[in-house]
Design a protein that fits this description.
This protein has helices spanning 10-15, 71-91, 97-112, 149-166, 184-204, 211-214, 219-223, 227-231, 239-263, 285-298, 302-305, 311-321, 328-340; strands spanning 5-6, 17-18, 26-28, 31-33, 35-47, 51-57, 62-68, 119-129, 132-137, 139-143, 208-209, 267-268, 278-280, 309-310, 344-348, 351-354. It has 355 residues and is of the alpha+beta class. The radius of gyration is 28 Å and the shape is elongated.
Length: 355
Amino acid sequence: MFNAYSRLYVKDILQMRESCQVPGIYFYNSHPIFKVDVLGTVVYKREREDFFCYGVDDGTGVINCLCWKDEQCKDQGDTAKSGATSLGSSTHGGFDPANELKKLCQAQRCLSTLDIGELLRVRGPVKTSRQQREVMASTYYKVSDPVMVVQISWMMEVPRLYRECYDKPLRLENGAQDPNAPGTSAVSLLGKATRILKDFLKDREVTRFRPYDIQEILQPLVSSQPQKTMSKQEPQAGSSSGLSSSSNHLRQLLRESLQTLMDEGLVFRKVKSQDEVYHVTEQDKDLLMAIRDIIKEDCRREKYAEKGCHVLHILSSVRQRYSHNVSKAALELALKALECNSDIISTRDSHYAVF
């Protein structure tokens, strides 16, 4: 992703966090971003001697795009004008290089000079100048899209990229980590355990579970760890102590993995009691139905009829009617699932309504 032109929504480009160590590098969901690819409508323009500044709106926000004029094309165009007479007379109606070059430069100027309301595609690195986020265009051109084929294709491609790449947490390969760094093995083990649980819950379509139901899934992961790691803590431990230490390690790993899943909103506990029951957010039909009923009921009120219900309002209602333990991350995941099933629609940023 770092070397590619990331097709992100303008809203996410404006909200990306800039690196403190390396200015000019930004992070979306821990993915390092350097260059972006934007398609949108020109909503304002400013022209200077050396560049155009276009405001591009993709429906989620507006970002400034600094598009430099092609000096080489201007110089060649002036040369073509000055030498068109002399070269044109020597060709006698044949191929005229100066005339063809002039046509080429005119076509390039036509594609690089846009008016408000026209469609623009911009590629380039992201910069922050005077506390304002903008794109320094390395390539830009006007898009001719009379029947909206390009825009429809873009609207179908970008959500797929978000699902398959951008919204997935960054995972470094084992070779990209320093094995001698403190805590590296623990972090790597926790990441592996979390992935195993995610794959298990997705493949089996589990709706709810208890920790002891899935504890055995992580047993091979703990058993494969080097024994010297355990022996540093208990060098003279006997076989029974070794088994006890392994069990404690397994329970600790399971506890941390479940906490990671809860932080990401993938699971939640409807009722906190001694009987630890975890509900899988996307598979909890009661939660999805409760959210849909809340949005449907509240959208009938005049206050929410036009804009829809804000996510924080939905979260407050869900906690009152369904469970106090539903996190914002779990709610957002449930809203995405409902939207993918066309049960609800997002009317604007963080607002939802029912069809």
